[in-house]
Amino acid sequence: MAIRRGRGVAAINYPTGMNLGGDPTQALVHSTPTGNFMVTLSSVDLGQGMKQIMAQICAETIGVPTDRVVVDTADTDTGPHCMGTFASRGTHRAGNAVIQAAREARQVMLEVAAEELEVNASDLETDGQGNILVKGAPQKSISIFDVALSAHFKRGRSISGRGMFLIPRSYPEKETGAMKPSTCYAHACTVAEVEVDDETGEVTVLTVKNVFEIGRALNPKMVEQQLVGGSWMGISHALYETTEPYYPNRDHGGTDFNQYLMPGPGDLAQTEIIVLERPSADGPYGAKGPGEMCANPQIPAVANAVFDAVGVRIDTLPITPERILRALKAQASN
Amino acid sequence: MAKVSVQFTLNGAEKAEFIDSGTTLLHALRDKIGDTSPKGGCHQGTCGACSVIIDGELRLSCLTLAETCSGAAITTTSGLSEGGVLHPLQRAFLDAFATQCGFCTPGMIMAAKVLLDHTPNPSRDEVVEALSGNICRCTGYEPIIQAVLTAARSNSQNAARGESKKMELRKSYFADQRKDDLHEIGQPRPRSDSPGHVTGKTAYFADRNFPGMLHLKMVRSPHHHARILSIDISEAEKHPGVVKILTAKDVPHNVYTILILIQIGPEDETVLADGKVRWKGEAVVAVLAETERAAQEAAAKVKVDYEVLPAVFDMEEALKPGAPIVNEYHGRNYYLYDSGECRKVRFGDVEAGFASADHVLEQTYQSSPIEHAPTETTGCIVAPEGNDRFTCYTNTQAMFFTLDNASIILQMPGNRLHFVGGTVGGGFGGKVDVIVEPIAILGAKLTGRPVSFIYSRAEEMQISSPRAAEKVVIKDGVMKDGRIVARKVTGYTDAGAYSRHSPYGAQKGAGHYPGPYTIPNVWIDTYCVYTNRTPSSAMRGFGVTIGDFALEVQMDKLARLIGMDPLEFRFINAYRDGDMKAHRQPTEGAALIECMQEASRAANWPVAEKFMAMSSYAKGA
Ligand code: FES
Ligand code: FES
C-alpha cells in the first residue's frame, strides 16, 4: 500500500457565444453634459465583472479613462435587449455592441470638437486622458468636458451612439450536420499532477498547470481571477461533485454544503495560469470567451493522471475514492 | 406568535427591536434593522455567508436566535470601514481581486477578522483553517487566502501546497497578430464593483424588503412519476397567515417551454403540475403567506392524492421499446430533431476509416448530474407598481429571455413587466431557467401584494436544474504513426423530465465533436433523452464539458495503445487554420498547438523538436 504519483494532460477548445448564433445584444452609449459616459445594457453581471469590462471597452473606444464611464445594466425598462449572460457570450457579444455604440458617440464628440477647434474631425485624436488634440499639433486641444458642455448647451448635439451585435443564426443541415456553431474558439492545455493513496483511494491534486489561449486579456487581473476559479471548479468536478452519487439511482443526493462536496481552502492544488493571446477576428479588441472553457481541461487531465498513478481507468465522473478502490480491487483480482 | 424585545449594539450603535420569538439574528439584521451585509446562502449553517461577530466570536447568524443576543456587541462587515476608510482586510480583498460575485465576501471578511483579532500573524494553514467554514463558488479560494495573508502582513513565505504563482501573459506567441497599442484594454484596472462587495453594500435582489411582502413556498411531488388524483387545499387555506393558494388552473398558459422563444418546441413542461408529476420535487401547488414559516406550514397541509406510476431513470432503459413514457408532450423518451432521433454529423466515410485503421478502440464514458451550487440561491421578489405593471427583482442570468417567457406563461403583455437585476451571486448557467419569476408575478397580480420566492438551499441543490448526466461512446480508428483516421461519437444527454435547454445542449455537443483534432472520417449522433429526474439544463461548459472529459481520456488511451507520448499524439492530430472540421467549417484562429507547446515547457514535459516547431497557422502560410 502506497502513495502513488502520476500526471496527465488534456487539450481542448471551446466555442464563444451561443451555439449556432442568433443571439443578439444591443448597447446604448451617451455622454453626460460634463463629458462622462453612460453605457446602457440589459446584460447581467454574474460576478465575472461584466460591468467593469464594458466600462473598459467603452473607455478604450471613446478615448477616455475607464473611470469616466458608468455602466447601467440589467434593467429592462432602460437597457436594450440582450440575450443573456451564458455561453461565454457576455464579453464577446455585449463588448462588440458597446464598441459600435461608443464609436458612434465618439464620432459626434469629434465633430463637435472640430467645430470648436475649427478643424476637420478627421484631424483629431484623443489622448486617453480626457482631451481631444489636433494630430501633429497637440498644443491645439480641447477637453472632453468642454466638448460635452458645448454639444449640449451650445450646439444642440447629442453625443450618443447605438450598438448592436448579431451573429446570424445557423441551422444545421439535417443529413450532414453542416453548420456554423461559433465564430471563434478559445483553447487550453492542462497538465495535472496527482497523488493517489491506493489504500484509501483518495486523490490529492498536487499541481495543475493551465495554459489558456483566450484571444485577448481585456483586464488581466480579472482574467486571472476567472481562470483560477474555473481551474478549481474543474478539479472539483473531476473528483467531488454530483447531485446523484449513484446515478442513475436517485438516492443519496446532497441537499447542503456538508453533503455536496467541493474542495475547500485546505484542498487546493498549486495552480499555475499562463495566458496566450491570439486575437479573434470578430472579438471586441480580439477577446474570446474563456469563462466556461477554463473549467474543462482539468477534468480529463486529472483522470489521466489518476491512471498514470495507479493504472486504473475511471471513466465515470466523479472520480471518487470508492470508484478507485473498486477498480483497484477488480484489477488485483484479474 | 409571542413578541420579545431584544437590545444589542450593532457596529457600535444601540439597537432595540420587537421581534417574533424564534427569529434568527440573520433575519433580524437583514429584514428588521436593514443591515443586509450578512447574506443568507443556506439558512442552515453550511455556507458561512451569514457570519457575524458576536462579542468577539465568529457566529453564524442564521443559526443564532436574535433573542439570545440581548446585551451583545455585534459586528458585521458593513461596520468595518470607518469614515469611508476601508479596513485593512477590505483593502486587501480589493487589491488581491478576491471578490467575484461578492456574495461570500462579507462572511469571509468576518471569519478573517476574528482570525486576525486573535492571531495577528497567522500561517497559511491558520488562514485556511479560519476560512474553512465559508463557501466560495467563484474564486477557487486562493485569492481570498492571499488577501488575508496580505492583510496580516504575514512574512511567512512558506511555499505550502496550494500556494500558486501569479498569472503570466506570454506575448511571444502570435506576436505578429497581437498589438500593444491600447490604453484601457489590457490594463489590470480595479473592479468598480469590488468596494461594494467588501463593504457589504452591493445590492443583491434579496436585499430588498417591501412592506406587506408575501412569501411563496411550493408543495412538491414526493414521487418520481405519478398521476394526481386530487388536490385538497381546504386545510391549508385555513392556516393562519395564508393569503392565496395557486394550482395549475390559476396559471394562464401553464404548459410552456423556454426555448419556444427561438422556435425550439414543443411546449412540454407545466408551471404547476396538472394531472401528473414526472419527477420527484416537481412543483404542484404554490402557497402564499404572510411569513415564510406560515407558507411552509400551510404547504405541509395541502393534501395531494397520487397514483404512483412506474418511473425510468436509466437512459438506456428509457430508450428501450415499452419503457414508461416520461413526457407525453414528446410521446417518446427522446427529443425529435428535424434530423430525426438525434442531431447528426456525417463527414467522410467512417466505416472505411475503421477498416483501414491499425487499431480500433471503442470506450464508454459516463457522468452524473452536477449542481451549479451558487452561494446565492435562485429567486426573485415581485412588487406591483399600482399601475398594472409589475417589477420583478431577480437574479436571472437573462433578463429579456425571462421577461418574454413570463409574458407568454402569464398571457400578459411584455410592457406590463419590468425586470431589474443587479449583481448576481454566481450563476454558472443555473439561473437561465425561467422557474421562479412567472409564478411569483402571478402571485403578486392575484394578491396585489409584493411576493418573494427564493429557493432554499435544499431546493437549489436538488430542485434547480443540474448539469445533465451524459453518456458518451467513442469509437476511434488510429494508425501506428499516430493519425486518427476515423471517429464515431454517440452522445446521450439526460434531460430529466422536461426539455428546458437540453435539446440545445445535446446539439451543441454534435457541433463540438470530434474535438480540436483534424480527422478525415467522422460520424456523430447526439441524443437528448427524457427520464423521471430533475430536469437538467445549462451549466458552465454546456454540451462540451463532459464531452471533453470523454474525448481527452480517450486520447490518452489511444496514445498508450500505440505506445506514443500522449502530448505528442495530440500534436499529430491537432487542428490548424484551414483544416476542414466535421461540421464543414474551415478552422480559423486555431491555437491548440501553441497551448500544448507552452504546457510542454511549463510542465517540463518534453516533446520532439518537430512538435515545438509547429504552428497553428495554415500549413502553406
Ligand atoms: S451558514 Fe448561515 S446562511 Fe449559510
Ligand atoms: S465570490 Fe465567493 S461566492 Fe462568488
What is the secondary structure topology, with strand pairs?
The complex is a heterodimer of chains A (334) and B (621).
Chain A: E1 3-15, E2 25-31, E3 37-40, H1 50-62, E4 69-72, H2 90-117, E5 124-126, E6 131-134, E7 137-143, H3 144-154, E8 160-165, E9 185-197, E10 203-213, H4 220-239, E11 270-276, H5 298-310, H6 321-333
Parallel strand pairs in A: 3-4, 10-11
Antiparallel strand pairs in A: 1-9, 2-3, 2-8, 5-6, 6-7, 9-10
Helix pairs in contact in A: 1-2, 2-3, 4-5
Chain B: E1 3-10, E2 13-20, H1 25-33, E3 51-54, E4 57-60, E5 73-75, H2 88-95, H3 105-118, H4 124-131, H5 142-151, E6 168-170, H6 194-199, E7 214-220, E8 226-232, H7 234-238, E9 242-246, E10 255-256, E11 269-270, E12 276-277, E13 283-289, H8 292-301, E14 303-308, H9 315-319, E15 343-347, H10 350-356, E16 359-366, E17 379-384, E18 390-394, H11 399-410, E19 417-420, H12 436-447, E20 451-454, H13 457-462, E21 470-478, E22 484-496, H14 502-512, E23 522-530, H15 545-561, H16 566-573, H17 592-602, H18 609-612
Parallel strand pairs in B: 1-5, 7-20, 18-19, 22-23
Antiparallel strand pairs in B: 1-2, 3-4, 3-5, 7-13, 8-12, 8-14, 9-13, 10-11, 15-23, 16-21, 17-18, 17-20, 21-22
The complex binds FE2/S2 (inorganic) cluster (2 copies).
Describe the structure concisely.
With 334 residues, chain A is α+β, with helices and mostly antiparallel strands.
